[in-house]
Design a protein that fits this description.
mainly alpha; 199 residues; 9 helices
């Protein structure tokens, strides 16, 4: 992540956070001070997360502490509107930026996400087309057939097929989605007896 000694990286992070800020004026100098205060909330060693049980416990504990901090520090103003201090708004903004800048916008994750989008798009197309072309509906997975029946009670034709395809895909685990995608492409090495596909 960012250490207090990494001046250039810290400045780059703050500039990006300010570019995303839409809640009033916030100077770079003030943001830098707010950033240091936000870092004070984080336990030492968080930037070296290693996935161990202790590390996961520390992250969970931090999450609970931060939720408690912000829930207890939020209330209703005199006008009945939600009142959140500017300090808390800025802290939460930095915490969100940690996620965006170090996880979501990471190139390795972005490339993986593009691949996942492709898998979902392919599955949606394949399932929608399969319902149109399949003459023996019993060949479709049982759960998919059930979803088709439900969808056709509310809609008709291709729209219902697409609705069922979307619902079926959303019910799959990541592993099942990749497995089904491979099956449609003739690349799966799984057994025909794998129960999840039939049901």
């Amino acid at each position: 992540m960012i250490s207090r000694t990494s001046t250039a990286r810290k400045a780059e992070f703050i500039e990006q956070a300010l570019a995303e800020w839409q809640d009033g004026d916030w100077s770079f100098t003030d943001a830098a001070q707010d950033f240091d205060s936000t870092l004070d909330l984080l336990p030492p060693g968080l930037d070296r997360y290693d996935g161990t049980v202790d590390a996961r416990k520390n992250v969970n504990r931090l999450g609970s502490e931060l939720i408690e901090r912000y829930v207890s520090g939020t209330g209703l103003g005199d006008d009945g509107a939600l009142a959140v201090s500017s300090t808390f708004r800025r802290e939460v903004h930095f915490l969100k930026q940690f996620t965006w800048q170090f996880v979501i916008n990471d190139p390795s994750l972005a490339s993986l996400q593009r691949g996942q989008v492709r898998v979902i798009q392919d599955l949606f197309h394949d399932l929608s087309e399969w319902t149109e072309s399949e003459k023996r509906k019993q060949r479709l997975p049982t759960r998919f057939r059930d979803l088709l029946d439900l969808a056709h009670k509310e809609e008709s034709g291709y729209a219902a097929n697409q609705r069922a395809a979307a619902d079926y895909i959303s019910s799959l685990t990541e592993e099942q989605a990749y497995d089904l995608h491979g099956r449609f492409r003739g690349a799966a090495r799984a057994s025909i007896r794998d129960g999840w596909v039939a049901y």
